[in-house]
């Protein structure tokens, strides 16, 4: 059926990147299913100075240095 091919092609054009690893997915649902596999996601490090959140403590520490350099290192 020609209609099916058109539908599939339309879906393929949309890309949903994973927020954590950047992997691209063709559907939002696939992406959300994939994100669950990132076990670290359950532990979110939140910056005290702004609304930034990080999945790794290293990234938060680096952010603190760059964005809030007035804080003692
Ligand atoms: Zn990912
Ligand atoms: Zn911050």
TrEMBL record:
Annotated Gene Ontology cellular component terms: nucleus
Pfam families the UniProt entry points to: zf-C2H2, zf-C2H2_4
Species this chain originates from: Oedothorax gibbosus
Keywords: Metal-binding, Nucleus, Repeat, Zinc, Zinc-finger
C2H2-type domain: residues covered: 16-43, 45-73
Stored SUPFAM superfamilies: beta-beta-alpha zinc fingers
SMART domains in the record: ZnF_C2H2
Signal peptide coordinates: none
Subcellular location: Nucleus
The protein's name in its UniProt record: C2H2-type domain-containing protein
GO molecular function, one term: DNA-binding transcription factor activity, RNA polymerase II-specific
